[in-house]
Amino acid sequence: MKILTTRMEAHPTDSHTLERYLETDGYQAARKALTTMTPEAVHEEAKASSLRGRGGAGFPCGVKWGFLPPDTRPRYLVINGDESEPGTFKDRQLLERDPHQLIEGIIIAAYAIDVHDAYVYIRGEYPKPARRLERAIAEAYEAGYLGQNIFGSGFDLDVTLHLGAGAYICGEETALLNSLEGKRGEPRIKPPFPAIEGLYGKPTIVNNVETISNIPWIVANGGAAYAAIGPEGSSGTRLFSLSGHVRKPGNYEIVMGMTFREFIDEYGGGVREDREVKCFIPGGASAPWFTGDQLDIPITIDDVGNAGSMLGSGAIVVMDETTNVVEAAHSIVSFFAHESCGQCTPCREGTSWLEMVLARILRGEGRPVDLDLLLDVSDNIAPGLGWPPKMTTICPLGPSAVSPITSILRNFRSEVEAMIPAGVANG
Amino acid sequence: MTDWTTSPQVERILSAYPDKKSAVMPLLYVAMTEYGYLTDEAIQKVARLVGMTSVQVSSVATFYTMYKRQPVGTYLVSVCTSISCGLLGAKGVLDSIADEAGVPPGETDDAGQVSVEHVECIGACGGAPALQVNYELIEGVTPDQGRALVQWLRSATPPLINGDEMQALFGGQRSFDWGPPDPTGAVGPVPALEGLGSTGEAP
Fold it and tell me: Which residues on chain A are in Cβ contact (under 8 Å) with B65?
């Protein structure tokens, strides 16, 4: 069962073109919505689908749309294509290989929530996906699917592509809105949430590329049909990015519910050189790691959450038995230290301290007290070190840097200790 | 040189948003294409266009890694060292590229030809280790291929950086099937997008 990648698999040479899109029922769902359905009816289908956001937070899409205050105009729709979570590369494929699917989803969503200006924010490091979408938008305007009086329905919609410039934090929705307003990409304090006060202070819905790419199918086939796919709470198919020490890394669209072991073996071809899985990240660099004995956890939002991590952006990173976990943790902590926007002290200072302490352990200059120091600094960022983390910061970036720390110290403490040279004083 | 600030392209960018301050990011890219990097004059002109002060524009520009306030080489080689690339040997790729270029990461060679930098995740984790030249992607790169890439940039001096060409010459495992060839590429160390006027096309 596939929804998102059907066209690109059947037509690998031209799935991104308008011609092919139209030959494969493209824009029929948008036509159906705009010419035969009320906006409320479209919104009902989105709610009935139980589609949960694919960007990381997993919030139900239809419910989010419902938070818009009824009377305030204009409203905006912003598509989050700032895909930057280490391990994640699914939106890149959707943008490159099927950009019209996203545009059609935008048209339908905009109609449902009465929006006439939509913005697609794509990370600056994605010029090729951005070019594909840029051309697709131009094709859609030329064909009359964007602009004035779409399908003769009286509905108008403009879509503007906006390129980021290298800042992971802009994937956080309020940072993205600030960036789009021409400011530094610093997250805003919530509430107010964007649905109430978003772009230019107006009610705004921010949805991920993959989330909105599902909307044409949902309107064509009905929300109930979508909800019937997969286990309760994790409806529909989902595009997972698999990387690390597997034979066949890649993006794989699956129905949720299979175990990580099944996914890694069946789709990823197993671990390279038949090695054992030492640990794996179930949902992008922000997520706490699972160990090899947790491979039989089912891939659902709730099962992963109950086991103390998150499915996040759908990025699964596999580390085999040869992995130096301190090196891996250092890579992730360095990432967050590099990407911290600097607004909140626990994150700005804490992520850099974590990076420095891990770096000195890697250099063979660690002290016995450094393990507790790592936990102490982490506790200042995310008090109690639980999951989901308690927050001392405006956004979850800081607590994300704690995930690899608790992961290695809870599961591989003796390995970390073994990297501390004997006879070193705590000084 | 004609005044780039009055070009139809700049007008189009300014009119794309209800508030012209939103145009600051695309206009900074246009200015980088114009000047090679963000000179003080570039910052001032963008500030005037969007109705901000130079300090405000500079504050925005320095927030994002892709806006360069210092001169950059003709070819900006950005090597990803985040987790998936790191697990598959990115450090070795970065080291060999920096060694061949003769500069540490973050710097540009004396000829102004090649800049090397380490970058965080570029969304090519299935094709790790990955890198970009002027933001065009190569996936599945070995340290030796990285070295050969730098030699090629210096000897062939390609006027257009095209991802398909580089992938065929120096790449390996990809994140996914890239689909049909894309003749478009980058003409400088600025992301190649038609709306920014930064693209070129292979003959």
Answer: 165-167
Counting Cβ atoms within 10 Å, is residue A40 exposed (0-12), middle (13-18) or buried (19+)?
exposed
> Are residues A44 and A110 both part of a single domain?
yes
Shortest Cα distance, chain A CAs vs residue B36, angstroms: 16
Taking only the tens place, the pLDDT of each residue in A183-232 is 999 999 999 999 999 999 999 999 999 999 999 999 999 999 999 999 99
User: Which parts of B111-183 fold into alpha helices (H)?
Assistant: 143-156, 163-170
Report pLDDT digits (tens) over A235-257. 999 999 999 999 999 999 999 99
Total of domains in chain A: 3
Chain A CB contacts of B163 below 8 Å: 128
Homologous superfamily, domain B4-61 = NADH-quinone oxidoreductase subunit E (1.10.10.1590)
In DSSP terms, A52 is beta-bridged to A60
Shared-domain flag, residues A211 and A245: no
- Within a domain: residue A1? no
Q: Mean pLDDT over residues A93-99, rounded?
A: 98
Residues 6 or more apart from B192 whose CB is under 8 A from it? A127, A131, B134, B135, B136, B161, B184, B185, B186, B198, B199, B200
A vs B: CB pairs below 8 A = 194
Does the ipTM surpass 0.95? yes
Class of domain B75-176+183-189: alpha beta
Judgement on whether residues A288 and A360 belong to the same structural domain of the protein: no
- CA-nearest of A172, A127, A319 to B124 is A127
Q: Give yes or no: residues A81 and A128 share one domain.
A: yes
Convert the pLDDT of each residue in B29-88 to its tens digit: 999 999 999 999 999 999 999 999 999 999 999 999 999 999 999 999 999 999 999 999
